[in-house]
Design brief:
With about 350 residues, the chain is an alpha+beta fold. The protein has helices spanning about 25-30, 50-55, 60-70, 80-85, 105-110, 120-135, 160-245, 265-275, 280-295, 300-310, 315-325, and strands at about 1-5, 10, 40, 45-50, 75, 100-105, 300, 330-335, 340-345. A 4-stranded antiparallel sheet has the order 3-4-6-5. A hairpin with a 5-residue loop joins strand 3 and strand 4 (about 45-50). It is rod-shaped.
Length: about 350
């Protein structure tokens, strides 16, 4: 049987203990610089996810690394590895049926093919092991002088090259953790400062918005007062013009032969000859009123005149007042709906 340990690794049942000369966790860590996921089968063989191994060793493509570096007998899909022992897929940690695994021999081949500097001490030790076996016919580890192995067996010293590699990897991980912690603290401090600055900016924008609101309110009030004052002044001017028209003496009756009928063109020509129309705007308003004036009283809506001439309502009002002052027309009063009534003088 097999079971997973606290690291998500799978090992044999405690009822079938197996002593190894080198602790497999330290051995793998010295080779790859990481605690990899591991399946330990009942026959004592260790299998590792090829994706984990290739990632730690810097291989860009798992399939290419297995085909070019590892031997075909040293890797296989997870399902076929477990099938030999009628075992099921372990739960958790993303174990999949089609996941490629490498055994210990395949892992060593991948390490020997790695070009990362961290793998160099392990490759040196492997080379020394091979050279020792070639020279002496065998390779043995020295017994550990301090701690006996569990179960009363013999514990063996970790090879110096492997032990140094583990120490360097641990120190590198510690420095990386410290650098990560410092970077995290700096990031938190920067975020805090950014939040404070954002808060001050929002507060300032709120005050500016309030000031703009008050200013717009005051401008609106001033515009309203100016509009009311302009309307009052216009009505006063209209009243004064009406009084002036009423105070003018009546025209003397005509004698002699009857004059020809008055036409709008003749009326406009007469005003121009007398230099009564001084601007083009006044002429445009006069040309708009002349056709109706020659026929009789005109109920003049200033809005209609403004629409026909394209002038503003205030400009039309000023032009009509100019015609009244120049004696071209006069106001006789207002119609029932309040519309001014103009006639020729």
């Amino acid at each position: 049987m097999y079971e997973r340990d606290e690291n998500g690794m799978v090992s044999r049942d405690a009822a079938t203990p197996r002593r190894e000369a080198i602790e497999i966790n330290d051995f793998v860590y010295a080779a790859t610089g990481a605690r990899l996921r591991r399946l330990t089968l009942p026959d004592g063989t260790h299998w590792f996810p090829a994706a984990d191994v290739c990632k730690r060793l810097g291989y860009a493509h798992v399939g290419s690394a297995l085909r070019n570096v590892a031997d075909q007998v040293n890797f296989a899909p997870l399902e076929s590895v477990l099938l030999k022992h009628t075992l099921s897929i372990p739960a958790g940690r993303e174990w999949r049926r089609d996941m490629n695994l490498v055994n210990l021999q395949g892992l060593i081949r991948l390490v020997n093919g790695c070009t990362k500097p961290e793998a160099q001490p392990f490759k040196t030790w492997v080379s020394e092991v091979i050279a020792t076996i070639q020279r002496d016919g065998s390779y043995t580890l020295d017994p550990a002088p301090v701690q006996p192995a569990p179960g009363g067996g013999t514990a063996y010293l970790m090879p110096e090259e492997v032990a140094e590699a583990i120490v360097r990897l641990e120190e590198r991980n510690i420095r990386a953790d410290e650098a990560m912690m410092v970077a995290r603290l700096e990031e938190i401090e920067q975020a805090r400062r950014a939040n404070e600055e954002r808060g001050r900016t929002n507060e300032h924008l709120g005050r500016v918005s309030d000031q703009l609101g008050h200013t717009n309110h005051r401008l609106g009030a001033l515009d309203s007062r100016a509009g009311g004052l302009h309307h009052v002044l216009g009505r006063i001017a209209d009243t004064l013009d009406l009084i002036a028209d009423r105070l003018q003496p009546p025209a003397a009756p005509r004698t002699g032969a009857e004059s020809p009928p008055l036409t709008p063109q003749h009326l406009l020509a007469t005003w121009r000859a007398r230099n009564l129309v001084v601007t083009e705007d006044v002429h445009a308003v006069a040309a708009c009123l002349a056709p109706a004036l020659v026929r009789g009283p005109v109920h003049c809506r200033l809005e209609e005149v403004a629409e026909r001439t394209g002038l503003t309502l205030d400009r039309v009002h000023d032009c009509v007042r100019m015609l009244i002052k120049r004696g071209c027309v006069r106001q006789t009063g207002n119609a029932g709906d309040g519309v001014p009534v103009y006639v020729l003088p």
